């Protein structure tokens, strides 16, 4: 979509507005423009104009672009539907976070340093069971610690990956829900974070910001490794399914 809009700008940049409008309306009708977001549109328009300008004029053009972005962001941007804060220790805030997770309808991208809180784990299982596309990224060392839920989540069919660098941590703590709501802060998904630690979370409805988080998440996903189902757990699952099928056959 971005490439199509860029080609449109490059081929029409020297035409007057009336000549451009029909093509612009067609892109709008095809949903290219809303998908890109205002900032990307402005960037591509200014890049098209800059191609025929001197280096000195490009400096002035860059300042003009910054001014236009400021005006757009402050005057035309809709207020987010969700603007929420959660501070810990506070079990009520844990319940609030669970409610957000239970709101997911289509997709949930979880990128959290460590997950040992079974209440939050179960919310992810519920989302997976109602056919929400759930993906989880966590730290490779934390998933090996006692109480980690990462293997459990993977064994239950949720795609899960960890980082590959033993000398560094995957230290993010955020979740993106349905490409619209991002929840981020210092909060790890642990019981101690709920009941003991001083932590915070910010939840905000902002599809443009979510787009940046999604792009970042997908970059990590491409470079990290999948969590494998442990052989002994896989054997237990196979035996359980086999015994269940035998019972059904007898009945």
From TrEMBL:
Domain PLD phosphodiesterase intervals: 166-193
BP terms from Gene Ontology: lipid catabolic process
PROSITE patterns: IQ, PLD
Record bears the keyword Chaperone: no
Cytoplasm is among the record's keywords: no
Database matches in Pfam families: PLDc_2
Top-level taxon in the UniProt lineage: Eukaryota
Alphabetized UniProt keyword annotations: Hydrolase, Lipid degradation, Lipid metabolism
Listed GO MF terms: RNA endonuclease activity producing 5'-phosphomonoesters, hydrolytic mechanism
PANTHER family tied to this protein: CARDIOLIPIN HYDROLASE (PTHR43856), MITOCHONDRIAL CARDIOLIPIN HYDROLASE (PTHR43856:SF1)
Family: Belongs to the phospholipase D family. MitoPLD/Zucchini subfamily.
Protein name: Mitochondrial cardiolipin hydrolase
Species in which this protein is naturally found: Stentor coeruleus
